[in-house]
Structures are given as structure tokens and as C-alpha cells.
Specification:
- InterPro entries: Lon_prtase_N, Lon_prtase_N_sf, PUA-like_sf.
- This is LON peptidase substrate-binding domain-containing protein.
- The protein has about 210 residues and is α+β, with helices and mostly antiparallel strands.
- The protein folds into 2 domains: about 120 residues, Roll (Archaeosine Trna-guanine Transglycosylase, Chain: A, domain 4), CATH 2.30.130; about 80 residues.
- About 35% of the residues lie in helices and about 25% in strands.
- The model has no long low-confidence stretch (mean pLDDT about 90).
């Protein structure tokens, strides 16, 4: 368990469109570009072993930045190396952060000065969603998965706790990068669940031509 005082002020950041990491969730990644291989090597040497996952912007913002301002840091918890020196890694989500300043230094990858203020809840216990209606949510999810031709282990979804279920779907569903950014920035688990529901309903309306779901 991290404390706020354990978190660094400067962080290596990995811009990857569509790759969403959330606190207390796990993100597997395949690393093969030389600059990011070096990032992993440097991360292993650090005390905190944190990497910041962040969405690139479709175009630079008014502040001139190429990255979204909010990302999520994950601790490097698993690593295996292939014979041709690619890395298969897992990041375990720790906390969201806000980028204060992007840094281009001697390293071939990006770093940023960050602040963790405003995301103290991320370091706490598993979050609950008192308004979660599991049967209705799973019914919508089933229709969405059928529409998108996706498959899953439905028995495990029935038993998963609210945070694991909602965060896993936020990370794994084929939402676009802007939608995933909205899920990342959701201030609470309930807000994230509401956003997931809205995105699934929107996808179903788009493919059915209906204005509202019955």
C-alpha cells in the first residue's frame, strides 16, 4: 500500500492510445520499442518502480501539450523477457496523477513533473457503488457484448466485486481513446459505472438505429 509521501514528483510516462490503467487494476503490456525497453530498464532500477500511463491527445491542446493532463501510475509487478529481447510486463494501478510539466531530457522517452493532489482516494480501500444494479447492468452488458461480438466468462462477472467489474470493463471494452479518458477522469466508481452504461447504450443505439433502448 502506497502513501502519498511515497509517490515521486517526476515520473516516466508511456503514451499509448486506448490503453487505460485504473487504480487497483492490472494492465498487461507488450514492450518492444527500444526507447520503452530502456524505460523499463530504468524503472527496475528506481525505488518506486512506477510508470505513468497516459493518453496522447489527438492534437496538441491550447497549452501546447501532446498528452492528456491526467494519467494513472502503475507499479511494475511482473516482467518476462523473450529471446529477442521484448518485454511482457504487468502494471498494477496505484494512483492517478496530473501532469504539471512535460520533460524532454537525456532519456529517449518522456518524463513529466506530476502532482497527485486530488486523487487521494486512489490510495485507499476498494471503492463501492451503492447504486449498482447488477442484474440490469449484466443484461445491458450481455446485449453490448453480443452486438460487439465479444465473449467473456459470465459466471466470473456475476461474482466479481463492483470495482473490479466496472474497472475491468472500462479497460477492456473497445471504447475510443477520448471515451477511455472520460472513464479515467470519473471522480467516483458510480460516475464511472454511469459512463460505461452510457457508452454501451450509445453503441447499441448506433447499431440498431433506435433513439432509445426499451
Amino acid at each position: 500500500m502506497y502513501r502519498a509521501s511515497d509517490l515521486p514528483e517526476t515520473l516516466a510516462v508511456f503514451p499509448l492510445p486506448g490503453a487505460l490503467l485504473l487504480p487497483r487494476s492490472r494492465l498487461p503490456l507488450h514492450i518492444f520499442e527500444p526507447r520503452y525497453l530502456q524505460m523499463i530498464d530504468d524503472c527496475l532500477k528506481s525505488e518506486h518502480r512506477l510508470i505513468g500511463m497516459v493518453q496522447p491527445r489527438a492534437q496538441k491542446g491550447s497549452d501546447g501539450r501532446a498528452l492528456q493532463s491526467i494519467g494513472c501510475a502503475g507499479r511494475l509487478t511482473q516482467l518476462s523477457e523473450t529471446e529477442d529481447r521484448r518485454y511482457m510486463i504487468t502494471l498494477s494501478g496505484v494512483s492517478r496523477f496530473r501532469i504539471m510539466r512535460e520533460i524532454s531530457g537525456f532519456e529517449p522517452y518522456l518524463k513529466a513533473d506530476v502532482t497527485w493532489t486530488g486523487f487521494e482516494r486512489d490510495l485507499g480501500r476498494v471503492e463501492s457503488d451503492t447504486g449498482f444494479d447488477r442484474p440490469a447492468f449484466l443484461d445491458l452488458l450481455r446485449r453490448y457484448f453480443e452486438d460487439q461480438e465479444l465473449s467473456t466468462d459470465w459466471d466470473s462477472l456475476k461474482d466479481a466485486d463492483e470495482e473490479l467489474l466496472i474497472n475491468s470493463l472500462s479497460m477492456l471494452c473497445p471504447f475510443d481513446p477520448e471515451e477511455k479518458q472520460a472513464l479515467l477522469e470519473a471522480p467516483s466508481l458510480a460516475t464511472r459505472r454511469e459512463t460505461v452504461v452510457t457508452l454501451m447504450e450509445f453503441a447499441l443505439r448506433g447499431n440498431s438505429g433506435e433513439e432509445t433502448l426499451q
